[in-house]
Every structure is written in structure tokens, then in C-alpha cells.
Records
---
Amino acid sequence: MKKKPIIIGIESSCDDTGVSIIQNRNVLSNIIIHQNIHKKYGGVVPELASRLHDKNIVKAVQEAILTAKINPYQIDAVSFTLGPGLIGSLLVGASFAKSFSMGLGIPLLTVNHIQAHILVHFIKNANINNSYPTFPFLGLVISGGHTQIIKVSDFFQMKLLGSTLDNSIGEILDKIAIILGFYYPGGPMIEYYSKNGNEKKFTFSKPTVNGLDFSFSGFKSNVLQFIKNKLKDNTFFIKQNISDICASIEKTIAEILLEKVQKAVLKTGIYTIVLAGGVSANHKIRKTFMSFGTKDNRYKIFIPKKEYTTDNGAMIAITGLMKYKRNLFDSIHVTPYAKFKMF
Ligand code: AMP
Ligand code: MG
């Protein structure tokens, strides 16, 4: 096995085509082609997503190779997202990766998307801490598809401790955002408008779910009902209060997450917390966790740099690299899966 293997990572589980080339833990290129078409539909349209992956994947791979300044024959293995995700989107990445592996005669490495969100922290300088988390730690995955607390004992030893019983946190933000008049994806828009808002102006209900599971549908209904009632008296309510509404939503969500993580810490005795997934780009959530970690020095909080929060090829490549180092290669006959599976 080469000392500094070069791995290509292909991510196509949702609406972003991500292709990255890494050498050891260094990112040589990380190309993401976004699909803006979904904006007008208020969410990802699976059929359109898979067609656009098909259109974009060759371009993304070519750009990744050019940016990395390597020759394709230098690539030692190809890793790709096998699941969970939208099946049509996954099939595009899988078919491409299989052909690429056969064409170059290099091994294939399949990657679980959620695991990859967490392992992105093992890329050199991928987090704002500029250091690697040490095992064991608690992974908090907050994304468009998932909201989970995972106990991570090693790269491939992970245990699901809690998960959302209904919608994911990203889904909720995106749905609330539509009501507020924003387009998809709504999370970044809520963050944008929350600036200078008074986060204490409005109070929203927090879910009471036992154990380490989450639930966000009650919170969503509470926000929507509140806005509906206010609009009855004042049709300009949203416009006049947008910053305070967004700030109050963010504050509630950050508190829900932190309270649940504190519960997980009490249960496991693990004080190292690793944030991952698109929603971890949110400044209020980042600030809440960081200032909590500063107050209690038993805690170590790891926060990904923004480019490594949402779906990207680098997280697939680093997870592939860890499998490559352990000779965990996969057969060309593997097939993608849509639903979450434990790793
Ligand atoms: P992922 O599924 O990991 O690609 O994450 C996508 C989700 O992250 C979407 O629901 C976005 O609305 C959400 N998101 C992205 N950036 C932010 C942000 N700055 N604040 C809140 N949510 C965000
Ligand atoms: Mg994701």
C-alpha cells in the first residue's frame, strides 16, 4: 500500500454533486456543483436532482482532477456515497464510480453519508479547531435529512444514541423559511435575517421527548400557528418582525440541540462533541456550543469549517481513505440504499 494514497470521493446523495481528490489527509481539490433549480419548488425534486447529477458529474470530476493537478492514473481508489439519500441521485454517483474504478483498474470504496459527515473532521484543518477529535466522542449530525447523536468509538465503530422521531432539523428550517417568504434552502436565509434580531422577542415551544431522541414537528407547528395568528391582526407582521422571528427561531433550535447533547454527555460520560452536517454552518448554533464549551472546560467542541458542513466530496474521500488503509474494499456489485442504516 502506498504511503500517501490519492483517493477520489464522489458525493451525489441529494442535490449537490461533490467531487474531491485528497492525498493522505490533504485536500487537493473539492468541487461542488449546486443545483439551483430546486429553489423555485421549495425543496429538492428527486427526478430533477438525478438528471442534473448525470449532467454535472463528468464536469465535476474533470474539474477536480484539473484543480488537484494530478494525472487520473495516479488515483489509488475511488470512494462514493452508497447511502442514505435519494435513490436516483445515488445511482448516478454509484454508476459513475463503478465505471471509473473499472476503467482505471482501481479499488472501489463505498461510504455511508452520515458517517462521512462526522469523519470530515479527520481532514487536515477541516474544523475551526485545526485539530483532530480524539475517540471516543459524540457526533451531532444536523443536516437536511438527519438529526442524530452518535457515539463514535473509532472510525468505523459508531453507535446511534438518538435520532429525530419526525422531521430533521434542516427540513424544519426549510419549511418554516417558505412560510416566511424565503426560497429553498431556507436555513441560510433564516441565518441572514436573524442578524441584529432580538432573539428574546418571541418564545417558541421546545419538544419534550424522553431519552436522546429529537422531535421537531411540534416546534414547527408552534411557529407556523404563531405566525398565522399574528398575520390575522397584522398582514405586515412578518415583514415588520423578520429579524426578531429568525433570531428567536435560531435561539430555540440551538437550545434544543445543546440540551439534548448535555443529556447525552451525562449518559455516556463523553465530553468531546463533534458537530457535523449542513445546519452546523449556522452561526447561532456554532456560537451556542462554543461558548458553552468555553464556560465548562471539561467540554471539547469541534466545529467544521463552513465548506465542510454541507454535502461535499472531501468527506467521502476521507472516509474512503480510512477504509483504504484498512483494506475495506467493496465489490463492484454493491447497490445504493435510500434509508438510514447503522454502520
Ligand atoms: P446537508 O443535508 O448536510 O447538505 O445540509 C443542508 C441543510 O442545511 C438544509 O436544510 C439547509 O437549510 C441547512 N443549512 C445550510 N446552511 C445553514 C445555515 N447557515 N443555517 C441554518 N441551516 C443551514
Ligand atoms: Mg448531508
---
Amino acid sequence: MLKKIDHLGIAVHSIAEARLFYEQVLGLVCEHEEEVASQQVRTAFFTVGDTHIELLEPTSPESAVAKFLATRGEGIHHVAYACDDLEGQMNQAREAGCKLIHETPISGAGGKQIAFLHPKSSHGVLTELCSGEAS
Ligand code: CMX
């Protein structure tokens, strides 16, 4: 079962520049920055109530986020849902005919297990399922 929206992923060219908007305009505090080598991104997390904003800066031209920036520019990149049971949620998506980008969970930011659903199966919104707690 989905528990909540865990975070919104926002693609940016530069975390150093983009975080100023979140800090100075919105008054949020950056909780932590982390490089996720497997995804070729650097991330910065801000907490808003019960959810988070994740800024995503590519660390390589091969990164999915670099491709997104090149074709679509900065903006909302994905919506991530926290799950009670990640594998069960993936099976539900699979059985409903949804195309999964990851057939098995991978390691994401904060030590969480994550899996992405293809935006072509989700009406244009790249969707991330993530384990509720770091593993
Ligand atoms: N949201 C919505 N649509 C997207 C998208 C996104 N973030 N990224 C790509 N697309 C669209 C493309 O525009 C394209 O649409 P059209 O065919 O209409 O032009 C379509 O998806 C498929 O594009 P593609 O060229 O076949 O595939 P890409 O090489 O662009 O890869 C995707 C797209 C989603 C499969 C790839 O980005 C991916 O595997 N993403 C999952 C991993 C990821 O995003 N990691 C970074 C974040 C990690 C983190 O949060 O830690």
C-alpha cells in the first residue's frame, strides 16, 4: 500500500544555484546533499511537512537527468511514493500491465530501495516507488 508522497524530484543544472530559491525564497533548510553514483546524480533534500523536495543535478552527461535537462529543461522530473511493501507494489504495477524500468529494486538516495515505472505507462509522469525506510 502507498503511504504518502515521499518526495518530488526536480531536475536542475546546478544544485548550488537552485538551492538558493528553496532557501531564500521559500525559507526551507537543506537537510543533506548526497551523490547517488548508480544514478549519476547529486541530490539535495529539503523537508516540507511530511514530504521532501529532491533536487537532482547530473554528475555525468550519460545521466538520465542530463538527458531530461537537455530535452525538457529544468523542472519536475519524478514523483516518488513511499510503500509499505515495495516488491508487492511492483507486482501490482506489473500485473496491471505497467512497464517497469527496474524489474528488481535498486539502491537510491538515503539508503532506500527504489524502482521506477516508465512514464509511457503512467501518462507522462516518471513514477518512483520507494521503501518507506532506509535499508
Ligand atoms: N518524465 C516524463 N517523461 C520522461 C521523463 C521524465 N522524467 N524522462 C523521459 N521522458 C520521456 C521522454 O521525453 C520520451 O518521450 P517521447 O518519446 O514522447 O519523446 C520517453 O520518456 C522515453 O524516452 P526515451 O528516449 O526512450 O528514454 P530516455 O533515455 O529518455 O529514458 C527513462 C527515460 C524514464 C526511461 C529514464 O530517464 C530512466 O530510466 N529513468 C529512471 C532512473 C532515473 O530517472 N534516475 C534519476 C533519478 C534518480 C534518483 O532520484 O535518485
